[in-house]
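Open question from group meeting: does this chain pack into something compact, or does most of it stay loose? Before anyone orders reagents, we agreed to write out a predicted structure and look at it together. Recording both the input and the output here so the notebook holds the full record.
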Amino acid sequence: MTGQEKLPPPGRIHISISRQRLELRTAEGEVIFAAACSTGATGTGSEEGSGRTPLGRFCICSKHGENAPLNTVFRARIPVGVYPAAARGEDAILSRILCLHGLEAHNANTRARYIYIHGTADTARLGTPVSHGCIRLSPGDARTLFELVPLGTLVQIAAD
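Structure tokens returned:
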């Protein structure tokens, strides 16, 4: 994507657990952005403290990091510096944060569990399930997705 082409408005985000892939699709289903992602290392589920990625329907309820430098580190959704200096050896949340709100009874606790779509420094393991329940992207892909989707965008996380 060069930034010059006119994209159709996004319809929804689809995240495949089996393929470890995130796709932004138009309302007609055309894929307009795709990226390798990483989901929960311990599988899927909505249990508090499980480290699992919840399944089902969600929406983007808040966005954090607009205009922040690409490798900005966030703690509690607040920018605290730039990677690696600000990370202190932790599994840092980088670049941008898209917070998820569960739309079904079984995933209604997603926001309270702090399950996000966000950037990671651990880009070598994208495409494998290694997160603590969040959906991880490369910092650049997190920034691109952040710029493409408005608040309220629907998200489907599926086992497929």
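Observations to bring back to the group:
Helices lie at 139-148.
The chain has a mean pLDDT of 91.
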